[in-house]
Amino acid sequence: MAEGMSLALPRQATTTAWWSPRRRERLLQLAFLVPAGLYLVAFFGYPLAQNIVMGFQEYTTATFYTGEAPWVGLANYVDVATSAVFGTAVLNTALFTIGSIAGQFGIGLAVALFFRHRFPLSGVLRSLLLLPWLIPLIVSGAVWRWILDQDNGVLNTVLGSLLGGLHPGWLTSTSVALVAVVLVNIWVGIPFNTTILYGGLQDIPQELYEAAALDGATGWRAFRHVTWPLLRPVVTVVLVLGVVYTLKVLDIILGLTGGGPANATQTLATQSYHLSFQEFDFGRGAAMGNILIAISFVFALLYLRVARRADAS
Amino acid sequence: MARRRAVLATVLATTSAIVLTACGGGSAPSGPVTSLRVLDYYNNEPDKTVYAQMLDACGQQNGVTIEREAVPGSSLIAKVLQQASSKTLPDVLMLDNPDLQQIATTGALAPVSDFGLAPTGYAPGVVSAATYEGKVYGLQPVTNTIGLFYNKDILAQAGVQPPTTWDELKTAAQKLTSGNRYGIAFTATADYEGTWQFLPFMWTAGGDEKDIATPQTAEALQLWVDLVNSGSASKSVVTWGQADVNEQFMAGNAAMMINGPWQFPVLAKDPALKYAVVPIPGPQAGATPVAPLGGETWTIPRTGNPDRQAKAAKIVECLNTEANQLALATKRSTVPTKSALVSQLVAQQPDMAAFSSAVQTARARTGELGAEWPKAATRIYTAVQNALTGGAAPLAALQQAQNG
Lengths: 313, 404
Known about the structure:
The complex is a heterodimer of chains A (about 325) and B (about 400).
Chain A: H1 2-8, H2 14-18, H3 21-54, H4 61-66, H5 75-82, H6 84-114, H7 122-128, H8 131-134, H9 137-147, H10 154-163, H11 177-202, H12 206-214, H13 219-247, H14 251-256, H15 268-278, H16 282-312
Helix pairs in contact in A: 5-16, 6-11, 6-13, 11-13, 13-16, 15-16
Chain B: H1 2-23, E1 35-40, H2 47-61, E2 65-70, H3 76-85, E3 92-96, H4 100-104, E4 109-110, H5 124-130, E5 131-132, E6 135-136, E7 138-139, E8 142-143, E9 147-151, H6 152-158, H7 166-176, E10 182-185, H8 192-204, H9 215-229, H10 242-250, E11 254-259, H11 264-267, E12 275-278, E13 296-301, H12 306-319, H13 322-332, E14 335-336, H14 342-348, H15 353-360, H16 373-388, H17 394-403
Parallel strand pairs in B: 1-2, 1-3, 10-11
Antiparallel strand pairs in B: 3-13, 4-13, 5-6, 7-13, 8-14, 9-11, 9-12
Helix pairs in contact in B: 2-12, 2-13, 8-9, 8-16, 16-17
């Protein structure tokens, strides 16, 4: 392109070259890209770059007024990674993510399959299922905290009358609290999984099931040989997006336990929030946040690869 | 063709407009001061109206109108930091007292002595909360602290006197526990509220936030562990905030609770509930109670305009007059910070007696550590939670947290 231009220049006046239809077309295309590009730079690129830089700085409340943030190299990362709570936070993040995704996906898929069969009120029920998604997370957190209360919670009252004597400390026992938080997060995540998977199921032609039935494949075998292979691309998208969403869950945990009891539900996300906004240690908070971003990034790359492969096929 | 060019022009114009808007900044208004911007977090009743009226009255006295913004408590600091970096701080800024030194470290606040103000006759703890590097950066008209609330009917039925020592507290709590009712409820959450409730026990026992791995602090933590392990307090204390504790008390699920006078309006909603307040018991009889100081302080940010700052100082001064301290104290169930006014308050509101006496010997959370307080507060609640959930014995839990 550049070579062609330099050849063309001596013969034509500069203004006409500027207005050549090809260049104008190109310019127009670029102009359409500019708003999107600026948006990405301003709202994704800048905060991300700022956060990465912040991770290498001693960034405190004073920085906001004076603008001074001394460079400290890797000190924030070393501090964060060697703190007593870091190991717990990493393990909890992993358990929380795996547990939530397994539950959300399993139940979400089961519900989506269930709703493939049309029955009276199925439409109404399916929209009611979206309810957990529509309630602000901080509200559902407060309500669940109430439900899960050890002494007067609805759940333990029911459990106590059914099983007698069973009185788990859902949010007060260090060994059960993470399970309780995972259960609530599963409840929050089911609508997302069901909706996307239900959409994927709708795309599978009914004739395939009819053909499979003629060959003797019904029930589980129809699922195994028709539904699952055709649903695979959607499944991958749901899982990868689910992991990225779950890694950064904050409000549910803050609303239920605040990371307690005794750090039993502390994750990388809650710890990053705590460092930045409770201890005002923005440098370390950013370092912790960057670790979380790096983990999410791996899954985002995975998503892109899967999406590209799906496009190709 | 013409249409295409128009499209191109529109796209370019829109883009440049966005860029220009992003780069544009505000300019400081000059001329006589006719209005002042005030930022606080009193966005709930009754505080919202009480402060709105007092600020307006103070504005009127000083010939300015008040443009007040009340944000939710949790978002105040984020807002202040954002305003500090964009140099748009309000003329008068309210801060929760443990946050004052944190904000003063930025240099964004002006010392009150610049405007001829001083906290004369204020309770010593209140002054230490507002002092950063030897200078006072805020004036706090009223304060509060926590005390031991008890249900009069339940105690009378059980024949229990309000406890004054830890041993009495344990025995009383044990006696008052029956059926679904616990003897006592308190807050031991994984946040600063949990730390705040532990402080009176820790400080009265002689513990100190600089090093929490001491026998004194361990003794205080042992008391909480004993209360929970004996079943006198619910295991749920690790999840109950102060509002939850108050609900338990109101529902009759707890005979006593640790809480503050801001619960009075809530408790008043149940006229059948008869309660009274005593100071939080100490380890032995006669131990000087040391409670933590609460409440908010009023500061004058450096806005760069001396006239506006002078007017702002007048507003802060006005909020702190003796008459207004008393008015705020009676309307908001708080204690005036000028010690001389306390007897007048107690004469008007006898139920404030326990809090009023506690305030005189109370300590500021940031008095010793200043901006380092949040880290110590985190260590304290982490150790408390670890011990209460059986993760470690009190002293071991405190050592782990101190070294964490």
